[in-house]
Amino acid sequence: MKIRDMKWSFHHDRTTRLFAADIVTPWGAGREAVHCIETIRRPVRVPTDGGPLTISDVGYTWYELALRERYFWLSAAFDDGGRLIELYFDITGGNDFSDPENPRFRDLYLDIAVVPGGRIRVLDRDELEQALLAGDITQAEHDGAVAHCEALRTWLEAHWREAVAFCRERKDALCCSL
After folding, report:
1. CATH architecture of 3-175
2. Pairing label, strands 84-96, 72-78
3. pLDDT per residue over 25-80, tens digit each?
4. Which of 95, 120, 165, 174 is the most exposed place for a label (fewest CB within 10 A)?
5. Could you tell me the sign of the dihedral formed by the alpha carbons of 31, 145, 7, 96, in that order?
6. Contact predicate 87/76, CB 8 Å
7. For the chain, domain boundaries
């Protein structure tokens, strides 16, 4: 099982300007961060139904949100023109704030991607099932991941515009702090 923190994505093949702060949202309290990518070894592209999608390149910005007592970790990718590429929710085993400056999470394999038009995709169900069969997660963790993913997907169906607006607003506010 992968463990990731707010600095994880941005330490090995790129340099970024980072600003992080505590936050209280309508959904709970936690920590947020913005990463402005200054250099990168090569762009990061992910496969989608419409072909490869660049989610990380020079001039791109990533907003991250980790909330206490929630079972997801939000990352929002913006291109070099400030346009939203996607919201990406990692389903977690809970967010760990033992280091309040740099929270982390245990990735429970399931993910949700939301594109600007509101299309919602649940990803990596196969990885979740493989992790259970391999003994990397317990049945309780598996069932919790499925339940948390379904609850978040249902919420997003009604509130994806609100989530997109929130990420844009917070990304812009944090970028002003850099």
Report:
1. Beta Barrel (2.40)
2. antiparallel
3. 999 999 999 999 999 999 999 888 888 989 999 999 999 999 999 999 999 999 99
4. 165
5. positive
6. yes
7. 3-175
Count of positions (residues) in the chain? 178
Q: What residue type is 13 in one-letter code?
A: D
Cβ contacts of residue 114 below 8 Å, gap of 6+? 86, 87, 88, 89, 120, 121, 156, 160, 163, 164
Residue carrying the six token digits 């990692």: 90
Structure tokens at 121: 């995709």
Minimal CA–CA distance to 56: which of 18, 15, 19? 15
What are 65-106's pLDDT values in tens digits?
999 999 999 999 999 999 999 999 999 999 999 999 999 999
Structure tokens given for 116: 């600007």
**Distance from C-alpha of 162 to C-alpha of 35, rounded to nearest angstrom:** 22
CB 121 within 8 A of CB 98: no
25 membership: H or E segment, kind and range? strand 14-25
